[in-house]
Design a protein that fits this description.
D-Maltodextrin-Binding Protein, domain 2, eight-stranded mixed sheet, 12 helices, globular
Length: 339
Amino acid sequence: MTATSFFISTPLLRTSARQLGTALVGIAFLLSASVQAQTGNYPQKPIKLIVPLAAGSAVDNAARIVMQKVATNMGTGIAIENQAGAAGLIGADRVAKSVPDGYTLGGFNDSIMTMLPNLQAKMPWDIQKDFEPISLVATVEWGVVVPADSAIRTAADLIAAAKKSPGQLNYGSGGNGSPQHIAMALFASQAGVQLTHVPYKGATQAAVGVAGHEVQVAFQGIATVSSLIKAGKLRLIAVTTPKRLPQFPDVPTVSESGLSGFEFNSWYAMMAPAGTPKPILQKLHAEIVKAISDPAIKEQLFGLGLSPKGTSPDELAADLKVQFAKYGNLIKQANITAD
């Protein structure tokens, strides 16, 4: 059998290689020019920030303070749209399925990012695949609130009342899988008590439910309940920080007043749909850092029990992985369900 040989002449090979190289350079240039066109003058129209949480919630309050400053600095409009429901699943889904051009963003808490995915058997999106991190803008400090006239005055009182009447104390949350739900479930698990969960359609409604004596207690972000506390409709009996908050120096920590070692906080993070160009993510991050570095913005956030952070996209991605694993373990250990 005679072997058949195939060959390409050297001049032709060199010519083809040069043509291919020229074509690839051209394609790269066009792609680069396309991205530059998208990002060089960004933004060229108003931006929409979807907050999948109730108006007046901690994240919503933080978003309005920070993004108003960002809008002023960038010289563009930023519309904040609240879409509460299903503890944030619906609104987050809208962000995930939006065009990744930097004009639709998400303002999330870490319940949406790290708690719900560990509670739901099926998710319409993957937090680590369907989104691009922008920044952990701030952490939300938390506390335990009761009606202003409640006989429960400390974390120890709450534990004692729950032990005396198992399942008879009702607590409110922003929905199944919300941070209010997770916080109380963790507290009850560590304290060895049983309370009855009453889910509302958002954190704000849950806070009003406590003030109106519909439920006896709730864990809440300070920023959500600050106005109700100041109005004398709620009493803050403990904070979930390692140390007392300077804003509430007379309010003890949960750890010192009833359940040693207990701590809890949540996030206000900004995310974009997967595929959003990196230059846009970087520009948004820089604008967030600029906004929260403003003394007036810092003061507003601090007054609501919020701690400015401004981490980078890469830092938020790393924090997300750690927090996701942390809550997965905690939820499993405490046998917390979405119901």
